[in-house]
């Protein structure tokens, strides 16, 4: 039967750990973030910390305890904990992040018609999206054979390779030759390691993924789990604490002054950026790809924006409108995105004949609800650019039909 709530609470016992957080030179780090087992805290000015209320279910549970701080690398260690028993001397020596030499980017934002400066123009720099962490899919708590670590490739990222490996917390044990994709099934890579002659003992392990992007840039991410060898290979997942951001990209903005000048000071070297500019009353500039800045470089990039009044080109009409039923009285309209010389700003959805605007959206789909079976509805989609030039789709109609078909009769009944 269902366990009473008091029984559940009784199983949620806690433990605590304490220690110090210092850098690799032995200097205490104030405000370092310590977390694990559902608990979190920060280090004091002398680097000491106590992490309380760590959830443990039984004696000698291995729990990953993590330490991080601004400008330092994340550090993790597995600690054996038992309910009610404090553990001391769980110390961290955080490695400083490499100091990146910096670069500068400056330039002007001007009116393309008369070359006059634009005040208040916004210049945006953005790095390509990068994978920052793994996700874990525990598909069936009773059967861990299909449990999977995976990543979601960022939109627009050009990825040329995935390399999965199995390791102890401090070193690699096995690099897979067969797993080269967005996911790895834990049992697959463990079985592959065993088949390759690797000896795996009960303990804490990690799955690590090296992602290679177009241009050769690499990112390394990992996640931990516990492996119990006896009597057979079975998995016990630890408290997996992965980076908070699984995909990340750096976005920076600067505003042009009264002379149209803008500047970015202290940009990370060896980083590639996309750059564009916009201003009220002007057409968004084309995106410029800035190849990797070198340390100490001072690069210039100007933007000449065309006034919106000069844009008289209509977008292409939304096409290939499809209608799919999403549930009782609900449909989803989807269409091929329009194109425009300065970019599409939004779409408008019109309903009826003649049409009445019911929605305004930047997306190339719309869900409409509250429809009645047997009634015919008409839709038209309009595409608009920032200069308010527009183009309409052809009209589509849809009539929902009630589901009156009965299911088949059950057969082969047995007493």
Q: What proportion of the residues form beta strands (DSSP E)?
A: over 45%
The computed structural class is mainly beta
How many helices in DSSP terms?
2
Helix amount: under 10%
Rg is 29 Å
Average pLDDT across residues?
82
Sheet with the most strands, sense and barrel status: 5 strands, antiparallel
The neighbouring-strand order within the major sheet is 15-14-17-18-19
Low-pLDDT regions: 1-11, 235-245
Shape: extended
Give the gist of this structure.
This protein is about 5% helix and about 45% strand. It has helices at about 5-10, 185-195, and strands spanning about 15-25, 35, 40, 50-55, 60-70, 75-80, 85, 90-95, 100-110, 120-125, 130, 135, 150, 160-170, 170-175, 185, 205-215, 220-230, 235, 245-250, 250-255, 260-270, 275-280, 290, 300, 305, 320-325, 330-335, 345-350, 355-360, 365-370, 375-385, 390, 395-400.
């Amino acid at each position: 039967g269902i366990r009473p709530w008091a029984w559940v609470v009784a199983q949620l016992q806690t433990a605590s750990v304490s220690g110090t957080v210092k850098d690799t030179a032995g200097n205490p780090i104030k405000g370092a973030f310590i977390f694990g087992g559902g608990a979190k805290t920060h280090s004091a000015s002398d680097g000491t910390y106590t992490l309380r209320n760590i959830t443990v279910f039984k004696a000698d549970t291995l729990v990953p305890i993590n330490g991080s701080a601004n400008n330092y690398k994340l550090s993790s260690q597995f600690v054996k904990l038992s309910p009610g028993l404090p553990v001391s001397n769980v110390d961290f020596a955080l490695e400083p992040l490499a100091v990146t030499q910096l670069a500068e980017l400056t330039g002007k934002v001007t009116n393309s018609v008369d070359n006059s400066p634009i005040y208040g123009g916004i210049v945006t720099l953005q790095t390509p999206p990068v994978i920052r962490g793994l996700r874990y899919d525990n598909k069936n708590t009773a059967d861990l054979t299909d449990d999977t670590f995976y990543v979601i490739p960022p939109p627009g990222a050009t990825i040329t390779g995935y390399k999965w490996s199995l390791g102890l917390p401090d070193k690699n044990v096995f690099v897979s030759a067969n797993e080269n994709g967005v996911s790895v099934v834990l049992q697959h890579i463990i079985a592959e390691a065993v088949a390759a002659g690797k000896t795996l003992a009960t303990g804490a392990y990690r799955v690590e993924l090296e992602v290679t992007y177009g241009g050769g840039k690499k990112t390394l991410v990992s996640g931990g789990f516990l492996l119990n060898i006896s009597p057979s290979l079975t998995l016990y997942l630890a408290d997996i604490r992965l980076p908070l951001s699984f995909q990340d990209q750096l976005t920076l903005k600067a505003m042009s002054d009264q002379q149209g000048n803008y500047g970015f000071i202290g940009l990370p070297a060896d980083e590639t950026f996309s750059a564009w500019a916009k201003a009220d009353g002007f057409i968004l500039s084309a995106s410029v790809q800035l190849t990797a800045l070198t340390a100490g470089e001072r690069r210039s990039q100007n933007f000449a924006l065309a006034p919106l009044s000069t844009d008289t080109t209509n977008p292409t009409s939304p096409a290939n409108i499809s209608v799919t039923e999403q549930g009782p009285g609900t449909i989803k309209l989807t269409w091929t995105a329009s194109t425009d010389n300065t970019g599409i700003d939004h779409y408008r959805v019109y309903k009826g004949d003649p049409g009445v605007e019911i929605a305004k959206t930047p997306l190339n789909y719309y869900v409409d609800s509250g429809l009645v079976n047997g009634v015919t509805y008409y839709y038209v989609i309009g595409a608009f650019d920032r200069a308010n030039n527009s183009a309409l789709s052809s009209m589509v109609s849809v009539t929902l039909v009630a589901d009156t078909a009965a299911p088949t009769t059950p057969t082969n009944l047995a007493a």
